[in-house]
Amino acid sequence: MKIIHDHPAPKDAEARKAVAPVICYPNTTLPAFDPAFFDRAREGMELVAETYIPPRDARCFEVPAGHFVRIVSIEGPQVGDLNFWNRHDLTERFFSGKTRALHGTHISTGDRLWSTLPHLRPLATVTRDTLDWYGFDEFGGAVHDVIGTRCDPYTHAVLQGKDYHYCCHSNLTRALAAHCSLPMDEAELLVHDVLNVFMCTGFTKDTHQYFMKASPVRPGDYLEFFAETDLLGGMSACPGGDCGSSHSGDAATCYPMKVEVFRPLDGRLEGWTPSKPSPYSGGHGAG
Ligand SMILES: [Zn+2]
User: Fold this and answer.
1) pLDDT truncated to tens, each residue of the chain (287 aa)?
2) Do you know which InterPro entries this protein is assigned to (predicted)?
3) What pTM, to 2 d.p., does this model score?
4) CA-CA distance, 34 to 264, in Å (whole number)?
5) In the chain, what are the domain boundaries?
6) 224 Cα: distance to centroid of ligand 1 (angstroms)
7) 231 within 8 A of 131, measured Cβ to Cβ
8) 3-state DSSP helix/strand/coil % of the chain, to nearest 5
């Protein structure tokens, strides 16, 4: 937390600290986001599947390439922990860290959810965000973060000394095991760092610690993605509810959530093709 100062600052400390930052990953060479294409694709689209996510539980759902999927707030403010996998290879999954490095701590319309190495391709593009008005608040908070990992029973046991079985990690593990008929221990290894849908988070200004605050989401709000390849999704309605006070326990008020999948009309995706893995040639210089 950088609060211990055991060593004296050098004479040129101020000059060293005054060096201007540069963006690590300029993303101006990524394929441009084309809102008009998605507006046209959305016209007349048909709702083809709905999945109800019970509070403090998770469900998996499938999204064919070229379909839209919406995570919808229904009965009250509720945060969701989202996983995405390549439907045909569950070892290719959402890469929260690289998505953060490319797009920032919180994502919104136009950003992409990238997959793990050695694939690194867009699994999904964020195409609509009804909370995009929120921006960053006075505390530095914003919604839909790729900072947090997912609430899990291991961290809870370390911090609180007791077991809790309905953290998002466990919920997603049960849901994946059930959906894909996998043993729990195999499914657990495929669960990964999430996109925190609707969660309002940031880093404190003094110690830069991860904070959360009550989500501004209300029933009717949604976050919409376009599937850039065939996807399997996993969604947990976090036991933290709106994450305004606690998580990893039964104290918070929790609500269900809904996942909706939409198929565009024929001919509306002209010019679009499923995403391709990184063009890196491989080999890693091993000769
Ligand atoms: Zn959670």
Assistant:
1) 777 788 999 999 999 999 999 999 998 899 899 999 999 999 999 999 999 999 999 999 999 999 999 999 999 999 999 999 999 999 999 999 999 999 999 999 999 999 999 999 999 999 999 999 999 999 999 999 999 999 999 999 999 999 999 999 999 999 999 999 999 999 999 999 999 999 999 999 999 999 999 999 999 999 999 999 999 999 999 999 999 887 777 888 999 999 999 999 999 999 999 999 999 999 999 97
2) DUF1989
3) 0.95
4) 16
5) 62-254
6) 20
7) no
8) 15, 30, 55
Q: Give residue 167 CA to ligand 1 midpoint distance, Å.
A: 5
Q: Which residues contact 146 (CB under 8 A, 6 or more apart)?
A: 96, 97, 99, 100, 103, 105, 106, 107, 193, 195, 196
| Segment holding 37, helix H or strand E | helix 35-42
Q: How far is 207 from 2, CA to CA, in rounded Å?
A: 7
Q: Which amino acid is at 25?
A: Y
| d(CA 200, ligand 1 centre) in Å | 13
CA of 81 to the centre of ligand 1 (A): 6
Q: Which of 226, 261, 268, 277 is nearest to 66 (CA)?
A: 226
